[in-house]
């Protein structure tokens, strides 16, 4: 017998065993439904992200996307001026800015979120404490809570509609303290900063957005007092 023959036999046996394992796996009643559910979950996640951010995805080997739509800065400040969405003396500072095409390349790159092998323009401003601890989140403006939900990627989120027609969105929350349909005052505590999957590397933080009447994200700096960084 030639020396190669035992090796060929072993290789053939291993291949047969592997094929049998795959056949047994395919025969399981749960196999294909499980594949379907995983695929469906992935599709829904991407759809949710598109719906929430209204932004184009930039693949890692493609150019940075165009800026998000912006609204004009209010000409005459009124009682509708917002307060920071972080409680006084919370110790929270701005950690990530809104993606703005008018900024430098360095600033634009710093305002991209790397998630699911794609870059997403940051549609708001993030706040966090330097020690990584949680802090109280407050309503930036008086209004009506129109949404309170737990998003699988963005975390717990709250949306408040304001008299002027704009809305503010608070994501990556914990310890929610308001309900849908509730009226809130400017500066009222609505929850605490938490975590989410979309900005996992950010740790405990608040993601804050301002959306125009058309639900497109606009730069919160147009409405907020100067933020520390």
UniProtKB/TrEMBL annotation:
It holds the Pfam family Peptidase_M23. Keywords: Membrane, Transmembrane, Transmembrane helix. The keyword Lipid biosynthesis does not apply. GO terms for molecular function: metalloendopeptidase activity. The chain crosses the membrane at residues 30-50. This is Stage II sporulation protein Q. Residues 121-220 form the M23ase beta-sheet core domain. The keyword Transmembrane applies. Residues 60-86 are annotated as: Disordered. It comes from the Bacteria.
